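FIELD: query
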Amino acid sequence: MGSVAEKIIRQAPCPVYTVKSFGPSLVDDKLEAEKEDAP
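FIELD: result
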C-alpha cells in the first residue's frame, strides 16, 4: 500500500475498503475494450 492510500485510510471519517491490485482480472479486458469502441 502506498503512503497516500495509508494516509487516506488513517484519516478518513468513514470506513474505507481496500483491495490489492494483483491476481487475475474478473472482467475480460478484450470485451471491455470492444464495448468502449462501440458506437
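FIELD: remark
The chain is about 45% helix and 0% strand.
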